[in-house]
Amino acid sequence: MALVDAIGRPRRVLDVGCGVGLNGEAAKKRGAHVTGIEIVPASIERAKARLDEVLALDVTSDEAVKKGLAGRSFDLLLFADMLEHVTDPIAVIRRLLPYLEDGGHVIVSLPNVAAWTVRLGLLAGKFEYTQSGILDDSHLRFFTRETGRQMLERAGLEVLRMEQNPMLVRAAKDVVLSTQRAIAPGGNPDPESLRKSLPYKLYQGLVRPVEDVVAARAPELLSFQNVYVARKPPKARKLSLTVGMLTMNEEDSIEAMMGEIRKVAPDAKILCVDSSTDRTPEIAARLGARVLRQIPPRGHGPAMELLMYSAAVESDLLIYLDCDFTYPAEYIPVLRKLVEEEGVDVVNCARTRTRPAAMPLPNYLANRSFAALAHLMHGIPTCDVHSGMRAYRSSMVRAFDFDGEGDALPIDTLLFPAKCGYRVVEMPIDYQERVGQSKLRKIAGTVWTMIRLVNALPVGKRGSSRYEIR
Q1: Average pLDDT, whole number, for the chain?
Q2: Cβ proximity of 79 and 18 under 8 Å
Q3: Global pTM?
Q4: Which is nearest to 240 in space by CA: 185, 172, 132, 315?
Q5: Which residue of 65, 204, 346, 468 shows the fewest CB atoms closer than 10 Å?
């Protein structure tokens, strides 16, 4: 479950050791093209029904990998309970890294040999192999939480965060499976029947969330499986850029705003998610913007979600700003340089280090209060959680499954990366007088701000050593 939760919304996935394709199927449901690699014939046939393609490929062979993956690239590699089955897992990862794009992610799950059940067995003088689980008799390598992290770093990856699947209720799995075999016709139950059963669904909905909280307190002891989210470190390079705006009746400002963007980023694509009833979309399209209409209007969150993931499909970098001149377009090259040359993943442009003359006092106090709550609850020292100008590395965006329903999505798109190991820079920015009318929904925005601050509590780790204030 932790591995599936970490998938985000990638474009192209290589599911290494895909089995019957359950994990890759989860990625495919989020819009990815999924290629599986598997060597067990029976599993290949079942995986073909779930994935876009399945390759019968020996990942321990340089020649087989070069032949099978020639000309391909991926933005996510999945290794679900696979690396413990090979003699040299580091070599396998390094063999596949050339097919992972710059900044692309790797998600790995490894059984935890330091789980409490194994420790109890060792205390009793037992280390007995089984047909499945942590001591599966086909495992060639064993990992603790720390040695798994070290293995990934030695392979050349940057480990961003570590999650876990708990070893509490799961300790009774052998008893459950024995009962299942006893009542199944011929003693051969469907291997997926447990996952589809009502008791399992009730467990996932009611018990598992409690287990996750408990296991997170001592993951080295209480985890059945450690899940690692890592990436191929991004290199300093020129990135393709999309400048995005949410537009709603911006007829008075859209042409001038696009002109300002063209001056400082002539190579950028301009993307507008538009809910206007005036001529805004026609003007934007005539001037060369790509316009995605969202009619009837669904609010800021869904529009921002559409903007981010649409930009992440076609460009390496998204810089977002409002279309009302409150945020100066001349900052775009500064933000771009931070991402391209310094390896920053998110740039948060803070309006509220001091009160801007263009911002009413109640708005300023509300913004600072929300930022103080974010600092108190999450340990992120921001002074502006609602900034309307940010830069996002697209590979970071695709690593999350942001839910835009409701308002205040900028809270998630700031706190999630900051708490999950990405590099975030917060810099001050001038805030200017607005052109046109404000579309801010103050009551809805306040309610959704509190909801998102609470919902972000389980994400990642409190605080961030990589959140930099400039």
Answers
A1: 92
A2: no
A3: 0.91
A4: 315
A5: 204
